[in-house]
């Protein structure tokens, strides 16, 4: 007999089979690895009892000049503001065009090249793809600029002057039919995909958001990207403006008069999958592409190796990919992407990248927009039920159970049977988790699942197999920790 320590490294590996994930975690939900320890994510509580009119596709949190906190939320066709007391005010502009909750695609006969799919099956055509409506929102001091794009939205830049009794209104003289808007560090309002031109970037006069026509006496201007794609997103990172098309990446730098802004290409074959699939930490931008993840730290775009990319991209509803969005969870050094799975119309799944530890995990949660902590104590995310939730608070997970499940564990090269008699747990509070074992004789053989073992020290078990998997699950609504368990194992025969 011998004690075998199961030192399973943090993060998931899902780019292959369960057997290929030997010695790794293979599946999980509502957990994270932080400081090399498996633990549950924080729970959530409802923040406001007032629902949105429709699903939220954009959110901004900021302080106004009176040091009062505000949350701006854009839905399909409405714009709302929340105060510190979670009171909702409708600031929807008069006459705003009705957007679309869902994306649509040409799925009829003949929409692809001959032989590309099977006869009689529906197929999507990206050339006729219509994304759902999303919002970009930014603050100009204590005032707000916001732009709804796609899905029938008008693409106007709306301006709200921080008075809850008033509504937002179209920004005077600004271009329409834009893809998005942001406020630069130099205090220009910048539109991308400006005026319906897929490659145009246009900015207002400095400190004058209603002046857009360039003349010698002002700093307004524009240019067109030398790009193969259409502009989908723009963010501020490292003092630059990073513009992403569906094909490449461009950095915009402020140079002052007479040109004010110049651009350069900083990445090819790195297009963004959806307009909201990007977020920014203090020094980096992260985004999801069609089949990969990317990072920009200044200089040039870098692809991110992912241990779960095969699973994520094979599990994605391509027609509804425009609903993908990203958010930073800075407390834990995480980037979260939420996406609709292949069997869902709405967002129901997530993938998380820990950019400090270079680890990945996946799970299920229905969130459609959100902001990191900072303005508010905890992250604030909106759900498909049209409520907002304060995240990372308490340990109630909406009826779900956090868990992590390993890949195959075997003795040596897997020829001998493994007889397991005892489990010696390593957890912060004994009994907060339970373990089940899943056993196989061969990688493709039927899997047998044991009953659940609540942890004691030691825990008596009885099983025999060539390969064993473990599943650790929450037993209680608590902030548990799970380290390196040990198994009392003896080798058996080869038969």
Task: Describe the protein in words.
There is one protein chain. With 495 residues, the chain is mostly beta strands. The protein has 2 domains: 2-27 and 402-491, Jelly Rolls (Sandwich), CATH 2.60.120; 44-324, Neuraminidase (6 Propeller), CATH 2.120.10. Helices cover 1% and strands 42% of the residues. It is built from 1 helix and 42 strands. The strands form 11 sheets. Strands 2, 35, 37, 38, 39 and 41 form a 6-stranded antiparallel β-sheet that branches. A hairpin with a 5-residue loop joins strand 8 (79-82) and strand 9 (88-90). The chain starts with a strand and ends with a strand. 45% of the residues are buried. The model is unreliable at 109-119 (pLDDT under 50).
